[in-house]
Amino acid sequence: MASKKIHAIYTDDDLLMQAVKQTRATNYHISEVFTPFPVHGLDHAVGLAPTRIAITSFLYGLVGLSFAVWMMNYIMIEDWPQNIGGKPSFTFYQNMPAFIPIMFELTVFFAAHLMVITFYMRSKLWPFKKAENPDLRTTDDHFLMEVEADNHDVEILTKFLYDTGASEISLIENEQDH
Amino acid sequence: MYTLPSKLKLFSIIIMVLGLAGMTYGFLTTPKTVEDVKRIMAQQEDHHAEGHAVAEHGDETTANFVDSARGEEGYSESAMEHATDLNPEGHGSSSHDEHVLHQLQTRPWSATFVAAFFFMMIALGVLVFYAIQYASQAGWSPSLYRIMEGITAYLLPGSIIVFLIVAFAGTHFFPWQNDELVAGDKILQGKTGYLNLPFFLIRAVIYLLGWNLYRYFSRKNSLAQDEVNNYGPYRKNFKISVFFLIFFIVTEASMSIDWFMSMTPHWYSTLFPWYVFSSLFVSAITVIALVTIHLKSRGLIPFVSDKHLQDLAIYMFAFSIFWTYLWFSQFMLIWYANIPEEVTYFIIRIQEYKVLFFGMLILNFVFPILVLMNSDYKRVPWFVVIAAVFILVGHYIDVFLLVMPSTVGHNWSFGIPEIAALLFFAGLFIFVVGTGLGKVSLRPKNDPFIKESENYHF
Questions:
Q1: CA separation (Å) from B449 to A177, B148, B222, B285?
Q2: Are the C-beta atoms of B90 and B185 separated by less than 8 Å?
Q3: DSSP string for B254-282
Q4: B341, B267 in Cβ contact below 8 A?
Q5: Which residues of B touch A96 (CB under 8 A)?
Q6: CB contact under 8 A, B68 and A58
Q7: Which positions ≥6 away from B144 have C-beta within 8 Å?
Q8: Which end of chain B is less congested by CB atoms within 10 angstroms, N or C?
Q9: What's the average model confidence in pLDDT over B68-76?
Q10: Distance from B292 to chain A by nearest Cα, in Å?
Q11: Do A58 and B373 touch (CB under 8 A)?
Q12: DSSP-assigned beta bridge partners for residue A168
């Protein structure tokens, strides 16, 4: 199925923000925005749902904490409770102060690394991944807004985008969605 | 302009009067002689005979873990035996009853000191936070300057009361002020160069002057900035804030050594001053948040947004963790090495104050971390108020545990003297802070960062 998209390029982030707001207000669908750096408030303007990655991180932290507790309890208390320098290895809580550094570090380790891996997977980032830049200049100093044009009159849409201050407008036709 | 609501004013005066009455009662009903103590002890024996037996039985089954650590019964008792500093007359030099008498007489002093210091440290902590905002040229906080200055109004009366208590407590708090004890104690003799009464008082006067002078001049400059059209007063404030912070960190360290650590002069810990500081700082930020919410709910500070509240809540969250970090670092290092001369400090706290000692960890760490972790909750006033109540109760217990085990030992309880002192100083705090807030407009003008602060968002 052929899909038509319009790429509108802006040279200024304030202009981009304004264009995004106007485009949303006129009910055109923005499928993607490419910027060389994070534009403050852009996600809100495009209407993206807030990220839930902090919640996953919290849960991973709990996993790490449980793992540390289980590990130290099994090794130090259940499997081979030796007397090491007079430390009380009778129950977990008696010797807990000595385990806290490990519990803390493993909590942070799990929370941080699993969250980063979650981020990579959700944003589909990995080595040798083919870059998806529609225009190389968007990594340097240009901003690109991609608007779906399938159900719209291209002429009117182009005119509209021109009025929002786009410096270049191009029609892209794909045989299929990438 | 803020005026202390008349109901709150009446409330603060009533609890001040009640508190004063309770404190007087506390001082008047201490036993005067050894005979009184014997009578009280006999009554308690009768009354608690049954409960006591059960408690002792319980102690055996859940043996204290420091005991178990050494694998020998009575290790902690023998460690305590040599800790003459928990026993101001010196062990063996006087009878057990005299020792109990001394501790019971100390109780109203300690109760007053705990509450007096708790509220004074809030004002002092706010002053430090305020100085940090100036020295770091923070862009978000200038719209809170008048609120912070209002709270630090309590510093002058509060610090004078605390000074009077430590100056007149004598051997109630500080065993090193007992000449007989020092004469028989090599360790204390070695410390007389630092721990002697004239030097102790001179240091306390220096702390008092330094803190209150900074508070006076920074307030003066901050108000002067409202009237001028250059940044002269602001520059002056920046400079004195930097010097105050240097002065503060030194005096805070020796203050906590003087007023708290020297209650058990045989015991020492290097990160103790930091630990006291973290407690002071987190309670102070909590009170700023509470006062901000109070003023906001009355519609007096429209220029303070929920983003300011969120920032304060972030500070509460972060410094609760900082406090826990220091608490644990101090506890774990001493627990791990288990050197008898150091570990007595925690043995008495764990054996006699178990619920408070570990309960305050839940109040000061677990609850704030769970309540304030979500960034949306930090913007909800009643969530912040709940966390603030946990934190303030927790840090009151923290100060209680700095003082009580060192002064009254196992003869502690939470009764009329403690509650009365808490009421009196809470009333005084509300009254003084309320009046302090009401003196000028709550909106600072002409500060170089005020516009940024009023438009603050992220």
A1: 50, 16, 13, 20
A2: yes
A3: HHHHHHTGGGSTT---TTHHHHHHHHHHH
A4: yes
A5: none
A6: no
A7: B133, B288, B292, B304, B308, B453
A8: C
A9: 48
A10: 27
A11: yes
A12: A9
Q: Write the residue in A58, A86, A93 that is nearest to B69 by C-beta.
A: A86
Mean pLDDT of A9-31: 90
Beta bridge partners of B327: none
Residue with tokens 């849960």: A59
Measured between beta carbons, the chain B residues lying within 8 angstroms of A86 are: 69-71, 338
Question: Which residue among A90, A94, A98 places its CB closest to the CB of B336?
Answer: A98
Which one-letter DSSP state was computed for residue B455?
T
Please give the C-alpha separations between residue B162 and each of A11, B109, B208, B306, in angstroms, as whole numbers.
63, 11, 10, 35
Backbone angles phi, psi at A7, to 5 degrees: -100, 120
Chain B residues with beta carbon closer than 8 angstroms to that of A83: 71
Q: What is the pTM of this model?
A: 0.88
Structure tokens at B349: 């706290």
Closest CA to B340 of B80, B42, B144, B39: B80
**Closest-CA residue in chain B for A88?**
B69
* Predicted pLDDT at B279: 95
Using CA atoms, how far apart are residues A150 and B60, in angstroms rounded to an integer?
80
Q: Give the separation between CA B452 and CA B444, rounded to whole angstroms.
A: 13
> Residue B284 in 3-state DSSP?
helix
Q: What is the pLDDT of residues B392-420, one digit of tens each?
A: 999 999 999 999 998 888 888 888 999 99
Taking the CA of residue B288 and the nearest CA in chain A, the distance in Å comes to 28
Give the pLDDT of residue B53: 42
The CA–CA distances, whole Å, from B227 to B147, B230, B235, B436 equal 19, 9, 15, 19
